[in-house]
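note to self — DONT lose this again. spent like an hour looking for the file last time. sequence + predicted structure for the chain T wanted, 679 res
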Amino acid sequence: MSLLRLVDLNTDIALRRGTVHALDQVNLEVRQGETLGIVGESGSGKTMTVLSIMGLLPPGGQVVGGQILFDGRDLRSLPAEELRRVRGVEMGMVFQDPLTSLNPTMRIGAQVAEPLRVHQGLSKAEARERAIEILRRVGMPRPDKIVDNYPHQLSGGMRQRVVIAMALIRSPRLLIADEPTTALDVTTQRQILELIDDLREEFKMAVILVTHDLGVIASRADRVAVMYAGRVVETAGTAELFRSPRHRYTQALMNALPESAADGRLYSIPGLPPDLSRPLTGCRFAPRCRFATDECRTTDVRLITDVAAAAEARSAVDAAEAHQFACLHPVTEAVTIAGSAEAPRVVTDKAGTILSVRELVKEYEAGGDGFGRSPGRVSAVAGVSFDVKAGETLGIVGESGCGKSTVGRLVAGLETPTGGQIVVDGTDIAALDRRARHRMHREVQLMFQDSYAAMNPRMRIDAILSEPLEIQQVGDSVARRNRISQLLDQVGLSRRALERYPHEFSGGQLQRIGLARSLALEPRLIVADEPVSALDVSIQAQVLNLMRDLQTELGLSYVFISHDLSVVDYMADRIGVMYLGKLVEVGPAREVVRAARHPYTQALIDAVPSPDPAHSPAPSTAIRGELPSAVNPPTGCRFRTRCPVAQDICATEPPLQGGIHQVACHFPLRQEAAVQPAV
C-alpha cells in the first residue's frame, strides 16, 4: 500500500516577469519502508516537488492542481492546523544546507527539542532529555555536551546529524532528504547515507532521497524517478534503470559521469533546460537531444509503461513498480558505466617545475576563552612538500578539515605560511612581504569553490572581470575591454553577460565567470578549490572539459582540490592525498586510484558511491569517527587512531618514501592486493 501518492501535481511560482510552471502533472508513489530516489539537473523540479509535499513553497509558490495523498488523505484539502500537525509529526525533512537550516542564535538542544514542545507540550527538561537521546541515536559524539553548543561550533557532518535528529524527533513515517550530502566529503557522505538507511529500518519509515549524484541513487534507492523541466520523464526500479535506461535524458546523465569518459572527454549535454515561464511544445528535452526528430519537437509524450520489461517480470508489475518513460525514441543499446570506459591519459614529459612547495607549515591560534587565554594552536598544514610541473595538474584530495584548501590559499598568496617555502618560478613567495606577494598574483590565481560568494553582488560582470586588470594596472581602458571580450570567448559566454549581475546566472555560468576572472592576468598556475562540488553532473562535465581545453590551449598548470576522487582521477596527472594537515600518499593519478598504498587512500576510494547498483563496498573499509583535533593531533601517523591496521610503531612518524609513487605508512598496502576497479 502506498504511503504517499502524487497525482497530476502542478505547481506554479508567480514572479514579476511572469509565472513559472515549476511542476507539470507529476505522478509519483512511495511505499512504506522504501527509498525513492529523485534525480535530475538543477532546475528539473526535484526540490520543488518535495517542497510542494511539505507545503514549504517559496514566496509566490502555489500548488495549482492535482493531489498530494498521504496515507489516503489529500493534504491540499486539510485545514491549516491539521496540515501543520502532519508536517510536524508524520513527515520530516532534511534540508540541503544544514547551516542555513539551523537558527544561529539557538542552542542545538533547543532546536532539536522544539517539535516536542510545540506538538507534544513536553516540559523543557523532558524535551532536552529526548533531544539528547535522539542525538545519540544518530551517532552524535558526546550528545549531552553538544546540546549546549551553537551550530557554528559543529562540523558539517555533525550539523547534518543535527538536522536529521530534528526530522526524526517525532518518529515520522516519511523522511524527505533534499541533497543531504552535496557539500560533504566522501567519508562523511557515506556515514550520513548509512545512518539514513539504518534509521529507515529502525523507524520503518519511507524515504525520499533527492540528489544529483547518480552514485548515491544507485547505492541507496529502491526505485528512481528521473525529472527534467518540471516533469517525471522516467521511473523504474534502481537496478532496472541503471541496467537499461530508456529515456535519452537518463542516458545523457549517465554518459556525463567521469566514470564514463571516452576519448579523454566527458559527454556534455548541450544547451540549457527550457524556460518554464513560456509555453512549451513537444518533448521538453528535444532541443538538447542528439536523437530528436521533428516528431519529438511537436508531440507531447507522457509516461508510458515499458511493456517488454513488464512482460519479462516474474510477477505482475503494478503501476508503482513498472518501468515507465516519456520518449518517442527510447534507448535500445546498453549503457555501461562504473569505470568500464577508461579515458586514455596522454602521458607527456612536463618541462620545468613551475611550483615547488617544501615543508609548508600553517598554524592558527585556537579560539580563546574570552580572558586572553588560548587553548593552543591549530596545526592546519604540517610539513607538506610537492612539485607541480608546467602544464601539469596535481590533484589534492582528502576529507573536510584535512588542510587541502589551506594549502591552496597559501600557494595563491592569500595567507602567510608559518614556515616552509612556496617557490613559484624561482621566487619564494613565502618570504615576500604583502606588497611583493600581491604582485605574484599575476603568476598564480585562485578559482573559488563558490563563485557567487566570491563576487560582489553589486558589481556587473564587466566590472568584476576588469577589477584584477585595474588593480595590477594592466593596459588602458581599451586594452582591458578587449581582454574582457577575449575572456568571455575563452569560457564560452555571450558578450551580453557583461551587463548583468551575478545573481542573474546559473551555477555553471558563475563557475565560467570565476574561471574567466582567474585567467584575466594570464597566470601560469591556477589553484582550483572544489570548483565543481556544487554542480550537477551535466554542468560539471561542461566546466571540467572547459578547464582541460584551456589547459591545453594556454599551457596552464592546475592545483585541483576536491573531495571527489572520480573527478580528480579525470582531471589530474598526479594525486596527493592529505589527512589532518599531512600528505600521506603522492603518485600518478591512475596508480593512486587503482593501486592505493595507504590505508586512508583505500578507505577514501571504498567510500565513493558507485553508479552501479551491484557494487557494494565492504563495511569494514569505511572510515569511522570524526577527525581528531588539529589542536592536539595524534603523534606519529595522524591516521593511526582511525586505521584498521595501526600498531604501536605507528606512533612514530613515517616519512613519504618511494619513487614516483610515495606513501607515508609503516604497513603500506601491497600493490597487487590494493588494485581496485576504477572509481
